[in-house]
Structure formats: structure tokens, C-alpha cells
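Each lists chain and fold; for instance:
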Amino acid sequence: MRIGIDLGGTKIEVIALANDGQELFRKRVDTPRHDYQNTLQAIATLVADAEQATGQQGSVGVGIPGTLSPFTGKVKNANSVWLNGQMVDKDLSELLSRPVRLANDANCLAVSEATDGAGAGKHLVFAAIIGTGCGSGIAIDGRVHAGGNGIAGEWGHNPLPWQNEEERQYQQEVACYCGKKGCIETFVSGTGFATDYFRMSGKQLKGHEIIALVAQGDAIAEQAMSHYEQRFAKSLAHVINLFDPDVVVLGGGMSYVERLYTTLPALISPWVFGGECQTPVRKALHGDSSGVRGAAWLWPTLHP
């Protein structure tokens, strides 16, 4: 049995998977925000609940909204800031009396979808989370590719490629939380989509509200959607030019916008070197469950 933990800023979720991927148990609790020790204890309690409910002991993988530094062994870049500087995997290993594997939550999405999702059987899977923020993960043969610095997949913090004049103006007005300007995240996240609509309309709406206006034929909403698709296409073309994944899988709130799967492929091709591109763009098969499932699949076999 494999146990996965999705450690988020507001909730912690546990899943127990049988060896064939069947879900055996699932539960979520509120995250003890800004309390590291109680966060660890909440995870330990969820693991115990899963094992008691199933009558089995499992391996444990954890997805976090940050990265484990390969140099210090400590968490960095986590927006759940109380995790930063902590040796989360080692502390959990001691608490649970077993090895614990830890990965960025976007990498967990990639692993989940590469294992038994929209990228099952593919050698190289690029998975993008496009929600409040914008991140991505890379799975090679079903395993996390974290890179030598532990930051592989930080696609959202590269500059939007091939910017036009309007986009250059946008980046002067909208800075990324990382402190830089022009980051893909500021354009391609759901937040970026809403920001662009606000700049054009003066109305502060949520992404799903703007999508509803698109369906009603609203001209400004349609223009914001068109901007979004063009920017997303350029950003994905950049990825394809770099390492040509077998499939691109989308997760997060904007991944539920069905028209993206029709419009993006044709918009990507002109920006890909040589103008040829047949890379499929697919919605995450497991949806919001992909992160926690991917954490469980950090143990691809019963033994390391």
C-alpha cells in the first residue's frame, strides 16, 4: 500500500492506494497554519488513520508547495512559509519510523498523470498547474525530475517569450511576487487572466465569472481569453523547444476551461522551431486528486 500526503496551505489530504492504484482511503483536515510541529503531527495522525482504516502499513510520500534543497536538505520557496528552512522529510521519517519521500506538488501532479493518468506510459510528461499561481512539474519514466538545484519545472518564473508591445506594457504594471517582472506566472495563471480582464474592463471578476461572460459573447471577456490563449501557447512552445515532452498535462482551475484543448494546439505550432508540433495537450485525468495521488506514487515500487 502507498500513502500520499498533499500538504497545502489550508488543508492536508491523505490518500491510501492499493498497488494497482485503487483508492482505499481518503481524508482531509485543516492545516495548522504557521505551526510546524502541529503540521507534522497532523500528517502523522492522517497516516495512522489510513493504516487503521485499511489494516495495512504503507510507504509515505508527501507533496509540498515548495522545494527540498539538495544542498541543505531544507525546504525552500514554500508559500507555506513555516515549512521553509525545515528538514520536513527527515523530521517526518523520525516521527513515522520509516523513510519518507518528499516532492514539489507540481512534480506530484506530473508523476500521478505519468503513472495512471493523461500521460500514462509516456517517457516525458510536462504537467502545468494553472490556478492562483502557475507552476509545473516534470516526470521522466514516471519519476520526478527535480534537477541539480531542486527547481526543475519552475516554468512560471521564466519571462514570457516573444512579448509584443502590449505585453511589455503589462509587465511594467504587474510585478511577480518573486520580485521580477515579466514572469509567465503573471500572464498565464488564473490570477493573471483576471488581472488582464480588469485592466481592460475596470471590473474585478474571478476567472470562472469571466469564462461565463465569454460564453455569453462578451467582447472584452473574449479579448482577455484570446490574450490568455496566445500567451499560454507561447509559454508552452518555449517548453517544447527546450525538451519536447511527449505530452503536456494541465491541472489547476484554468485547466477546466474546455476550449483550451481546442485552441492551444494550433496556437502553439507557429512558435515551435520549424513550425511543426503535434504535442498533445490534455486535462489531468485525476483532476484535483492528482497531487495527493502523485505523492503516493513517489514510491513507484514497494522497495527503493
About this structure: The CA atoms of residues 117 and 285 lie 5 Å apart. The chain is about 40% helix and 20% strand. The mean pLDDT is 95. The two ends are 14 Å apart (CA to CA).
